[in-house]
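Run log, item B.
One chain of 124 residues. Sequence copied directly from the ordering sheet:
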Amino acid sequence: MSIVWIAIAGFLTGVTASMGLGGGFVLIIFLTVFAGTAQVAAGGINLLFFLPIALISMLIHTKNKLIEWKLVAPICIAGVVGVAGGALLLGVVNENLLRKLFAGLLVFVGLREIFHKKAVEKKP
Protein backbone atom coordinates (compact mmCIF):
# COMPACT_ATOMS: atom_id res chain seq x y z
CA MET A 1 0.00 0.00 0.00
CA SER A 2 1.51 3.31 -1.01
CA ILE A 3 2.09 6.15 1.41
CA VAL A 4 -0.26 8.32 -0.69
CA TRP A 5 -3.24 6.01 -0.05
CA ILE A 6 -2.38 5.80 3.62
CA ALA A 7 -2.20 9.61 3.80
CA ILE A 8 -5.58 9.90 2.03
CA ALA A 9 -7.12 7.42 4.48
CA GLY A 10 -5.65 9.35 7.41
CA PHE A 11 -7.00 12.62 6.06
CA LEU A 12 -10.52 11.27 5.48
CA THR A 13 -10.51 9.59 8.87
CA GLY A 14 -9.38 12.81 10.55
CA VAL A 15 -12.10 14.84 8.85
CA THR A 16 -14.88 12.44 9.81
CA ALA A 17 -13.54 11.91 13.33
CA SER A 18 -13.27 15.64 14.03
CA MET A 19 -16.92 16.03 13.10
CA GLY A 20 -17.90 13.25 15.48
CA LEU A 21 -18.96 10.95 12.65
CA GLY A 22 -16.99 7.86 13.60
CA GLY A 23 -13.71 8.26 11.77
CA GLY A 24 -12.51 5.09 13.46
CA PHE A 25 -14.93 3.10 11.32
CA VAL A 26 -13.36 4.59 8.20
CA LEU A 27 -9.82 3.87 9.39
CA ILE A 28 -10.53 0.27 10.45
CA ILE A 29 -12.32 -0.50 7.20
CA PHE A 30 -9.46 0.97 5.18
CA LEU A 31 -6.80 -0.87 7.15
CA THR A 32 -8.52 -4.26 7.05
CA VAL A 33 -10.03 -4.21 3.56
CA PHE A 34 -7.56 -2.19 1.50
CA ALA A 35 -4.27 -2.39 3.43
CA GLY A 36 -4.62 -6.04 4.50
CA THR A 37 -4.02 -5.28 8.19
CA ALA A 38 -5.21 -7.81 10.77
CA GLN A 39 -8.39 -6.77 12.60
CA VAL A 40 -6.65 -6.70 15.99
CA ALA A 41 -3.77 -4.57 14.68
CA ALA A 42 -6.21 -2.21 12.94
CA GLY A 43 -8.03 -1.73 16.24
CA GLY A 44 -4.78 -0.87 17.99
CA ILE A 45 -3.76 1.58 15.28
CA ASN A 46 -7.20 3.15 15.50
CA LEU A 47 -6.82 3.66 19.25
CA LEU A 48 -3.46 5.40 18.80
CA PHE A 49 -4.80 7.51 15.93
CA PHE A 50 -7.72 8.59 18.09
CA LEU A 51 -5.58 10.35 20.73
CA PRO A 52 -4.32 13.37 18.72
CA ILE A 53 -7.58 13.65 16.76
CA ALA A 54 -9.61 13.71 19.98
CA LEU A 55 -7.34 16.36 21.51
CA ILE A 56 -7.59 18.67 18.51
CA SER A 57 -11.36 18.16 18.23
CA MET A 58 -11.78 18.79 21.96
CA LEU A 59 -9.88 22.08 21.74
CA ILE A 60 -11.98 23.29 18.80
CA HIS A 61 -15.29 22.16 20.34
CA THR A 62 -14.32 23.76 23.67
CA LYS A 63 -13.57 27.02 21.89
CA ASN A 64 -17.01 26.87 20.25
CA LYS A 65 -18.68 25.98 23.59
CA LEU A 66 -20.05 22.69 22.27
CA ILE A 67 -18.99 20.42 25.15
CA GLU A 68 -21.30 19.60 28.05
CA TRP A 69 -18.64 19.26 30.75
CA LYS A 70 -20.94 17.59 33.28
CA LEU A 71 -21.09 14.56 30.95
CA VAL A 72 -17.34 14.22 30.42
CA ALA A 73 -16.38 12.35 33.62
CA PRO A 74 -19.11 9.66 33.47
CA ILE A 75 -18.42 9.05 29.78
CA CYS A 76 -14.66 8.81 30.33
CA ILE A 77 -15.06 6.41 33.24
CA ALA A 78 -17.44 4.20 31.28
CA GLY A 79 -15.08 4.34 28.29
CA VAL A 80 -12.09 3.19 30.35
CA VAL A 81 -14.12 0.29 31.75
CA GLY A 82 -15.26 -0.59 28.22
CA VAL A 83 -11.71 -0.52 26.87
CA ALA A 84 -10.50 -2.80 29.66
CA GLY A 85 -13.33 -5.25 29.02
CA GLY A 86 -12.81 -5.14 25.27
CA ALA A 87 -9.08 -5.74 25.62
CA LEU A 88 -9.74 -8.77 27.82
CA LEU A 89 -12.27 -10.16 25.32
CA LEU A 90 -9.88 -9.57 22.46
CA GLY A 91 -7.58 -12.23 23.86
CA VAL A 92 -10.26 -14.91 23.58
CA VAL A 93 -12.23 -13.91 20.46
CA ASN A 94 -11.31 -15.44 17.10
CA GLU A 95 -10.32 -12.82 14.48
CA ASN A 96 -12.96 -14.07 12.02
CA LEU A 97 -15.64 -13.68 14.69
CA LEU A 98 -14.28 -10.22 15.48
CA ARG A 99 -14.59 -9.21 11.81
CA LYS A 100 -18.19 -10.48 11.71
CA LEU A 101 -19.08 -8.65 14.92
CA PHE A 102 -17.57 -5.43 13.56
CA ALA A 103 -19.48 -5.85 10.28
CA GLY A 104 -22.68 -6.43 12.25
CA LEU A 105 -22.04 -3.26 14.24
CA LEU A 106 -21.55 -1.28 11.03
CA VAL A 107 -24.81 -2.63 9.59
CA PHE A 108 -26.66 -1.85 12.84
CA VAL A 109 -25.31 1.70 13.01
CA GLY A 110 -26.04 2.29 9.32
CA LEU A 111 -29.62 1.04 9.59
CA ARG A 112 -30.16 3.06 12.75
CA GLU A 113 -28.95 6.20 11.00
CA ILE A 114 -31.27 5.55 8.07
CA PHE A 115 -34.43 4.67 10.00
CA HIS A 116 -34.13 6.43 13.38
CA LYS A 117 -35.98 9.71 13.57
CA LYS A 118 -33.89 12.40 15.17
CA ALA A 119 -35.46 14.96 17.46
CA VAL A 120 -35.00 18.52 16.28
CA GLU A 121 -32.78 20.39 18.72
CA LYS A 122 -33.89 23.86 19.74
CA LYS A 123 -31.17 26.46 19.84
CA PRO A 124 -31.10 28.62 23.00
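Observations after the first pass:
- Helices lie at 3-18, 23-34, 39-63, 72-90, 95-115.
- Residues 39-63 form the longest helix (25 residues).
Flagged for discussion on Thursday.
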